[in-house]
Amino acid sequence: MKLSCQENRVPGDSLAERLENLEAYGFEGIEFWGHQLWERESEIADELSRSPVKASSICAGLRGCLLDADPKVRQQAVEDLARLLSVADTIGAVGVVLVPIFGPPRLPDLSPLADARTLEGNLLVELLKRVVEASTDVQTVLLLEPLNRYETHFLRTLDDGVDIAKRVGHPRVRIMADFLHIEETSTPAAIKRAGEFIAHVHLADNTRLLPGTGDTDFAAGFAALKSIGYDKYMALECGVPGDPAVELPKCAKWLKSLM
After folding, report:
1. What HEC string does 60-127 produce?
2. Does domain 2-258 have CATH number 3.20.20.150?
3. Whether pTM exceeds 0.70
4. CB of 134 within 8 A of CB of 187?
C-alpha cells in the first residue's frame, strides 16, 4: 500500500514544491482535483517526470451530472469524464474518482414501470459501458465512489458500487473505498466483500480531519485491505489541523506504522 495526498492539502507555491514536500513527508503519490485538469496536463506530466512522487488519482471535478434528467447535462459529464480519463492516462494515475450524483434523484419516478432509483442504476450502467468502450486507447480506471446518506441517495455502500461495476462488466470500472463514507456496520467486512473491485482508497477520520484525530479503526481497515491483496494508493482527503509541514509527515509516519 502506498500513501498519497490531495494536492490542495500540501504546502508549496508550485507543483514542483508540493511534490518535493510530499517526498520529504513520506508520501509516494499525489491526487489532483479534476475540474478542467486538462488545462494543466503538460505541466503535471512534466513535473511528475522529475519526481519520485507519482500521480495516484484524479478526484471528481466533472461538470454536469451523469444522472440528470437533461440529456445535455449528462453529455457534459460524459465528455468531461472521457477527457479526465485521458489526462489520467497521460500522467500515469490509476484512475478518476466518480460520484454519479449528489443529493436527491433528478430523474422522475415512473412507477409502476420503474422508480427513480431503478432508472438511475440502468442509466449509469449504460453510460459507463459507453465511456469505457469509447476510450480503448487508455488504461485508466473509473473509480465509483459510494458516499454517506447525507451526501447522496445513490451508491451508499461498497456493495452498491460493486453491484454497478459487475453490471457494467468491464475491468476498467472499479470502486473506491473511503474510510469516512463506509456506512456498513463493519468496515473490514465491507472491504473484504468488495475485494478485488477496490482500486483506490480515501483516508479521513470520522472527524473529517487527518487519520488519528478521531476514533476510526484504521488498523482493522488496513488489515482487511492486506487480506484482499490491496497494494495501490490510499489518498488523504481530509482537513489538516495545524501546520501541514508538521502534521502531514506525522500522519504519514503513523499510518505507515499500521500498514
Report:
1. CCCCCCCCCCCHHHHHHHHHHHHHHHHHHHHHCCCEEEECCCCECCCCCCECCCECHHHHHHHHHHHH
2. yes
3. yes
4. no
- Residue-wise DSSP of the chain: -EEEEEGGGS--SSHHHHHHHHHHHT--EEEEE-TTGGGGHHHHHHHHTT-S-EEEEEE---SS-TT-SSHHHHHHHHHHHHHHHHHHHHHT-SEEEE----BS--S--BTTTB-HHHHHHHHHHHHHHHHHHH-TT---EEEE----TTTBSS--SHHHHHHHHHHHT-TTEEEEEETTT--SS-HHHHHHHHGGGEEEEEE--TTSBSTTSS---HHHHHHHHHHTT--SEEEE-SB--S-HHHHHHHHHHHHHHH-
Domain residues of the chain, as ranges?
2-258
Extract the C-alpha cell encoding 84.
479526465
The catalytic residues are: 145, 237
Joined together, the cell numbers standing for residue 211 give 487519520
What is the Cα–Cα distance from 126 to 69, expressed in whole angstroms?
15
Pairing state between β 29-33 and 173-178 = unpaired
Q: What would the pLDDT profile of 181-233 be if each residue is shown by its tens digit?
A: 878 889 999 999 999 999 999 999 999 999 999 999 999 999 999 999 999 99
